[in-house]
Amino acid sequence: MEDVLDVYKRPYDEKRPLICMDETNKQQLKEKHTPTPPPRPGNPMKFDTEYERNGTSNIFLSFEPLQGKRKLNHRKKTDWAHFMKE
Questions:
Q1: How many CB atoms lie within 10 A of CB 51?
Q2: How many CA atoms lie within 13 A of 15 on its CB side?
Q3: I need a surface site. Which of 2, 18, 25, 82 has the fewest CB within 10 A?
Q4: Which residues neighbour 71 within 8 Å (Cβ) at sequence distance 6 or greater?
Q5: Are 58 and 23 in contact (CB under 8 A)?
Q6: Could you tell me which of 1, 5, 12, 23 has the C-alpha nearest to residue 64?
Q7: What is the pTM (predicted TM-score) of this model?
Q8: Would you say 59 and 74 are in contact if contact means Cβ atoms under 8 Å apart?
Q9: Can you give the pLDDT at residue 47?
Q10: What is the CA radius of gyration of the chain?
Q11: Per-residue pLDDT tens over the stretch 37-86
C-alpha cells in the first residue's frame, strides 16, 4: 500500500501527469407524491418513501491530484473510450 501512496508524492511531470479515472452509474429517482407542508411552523415537511424510477446516468470522473484539476462528464457508456483517450 505504501508503494501506491508514494506515487502521489512524486513531483509533477508535465510529460507524464498522474491522472485518476473512475466510472459509475446512478439511478435517477422522481418523487411520486408532493411533500406535505408542516401542520405547524417549526415541524418538518412530510415525505412519502414511494418514488418513480426516472432512468440512469453514467458518470465519468478524471482527477489530477498534483494539479488540483478534475473533470466530470455525464454520458452514455459508449463514450467511455473517448473519455479515456482524452
A1: 14
A2: 0
A3: 2
A4: 61, 62, 63
A5: yes
A6: 12
A7: 0.54
A8: yes
A9: 77
A10: 21
A11: 777 888 887 877 888 888 888 888 888 888 888 888 777 767 777 777 77
